[in-house]
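Question:
Write out your own:
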Amino acid sequence: MYFYFNNCVNWDRADVDEEGGLCDMIDRAVDISRRTFLKHIDKGGLDIISVNLGYSRHHKQGLVMANDWAVSYHRSVLHGQRVYYFRHSAIEYVFTKGGE
C-alpha cells in the first residue's frame, strides 16, 4: 500500500532536480484512472488531503474530488521506486510505499 509522502511545494529543494528526483518523476509519469489510483493508495490519507483541499465528503454537499475534471492521477518512479500521485492546481501529491 502507498501512503502520502509529500507534495511538490514542500519538496526538499536538493531533490527537485536531482537525478531520479521530483522533476524526473513528473517527466516519466504515466496517466492512470482514479480507480487504478485508489487500488494502490491509502484512502484514509487521501480523504484527509481531499477535505483539506476544500472538497466535500459527499456529492450532495458540493464538489467531491472524484468529480473534479481538473484533478489527474499518475504512476511514476521516484529514485527507482514506484510511486502514485495526483495533480491538483499544478501541485503533485505523492504517495510512496510505506510513506517514506
Observations:
- The mean pLDDT is 93.
- The two ends are 12 Å apart (CA to CA).
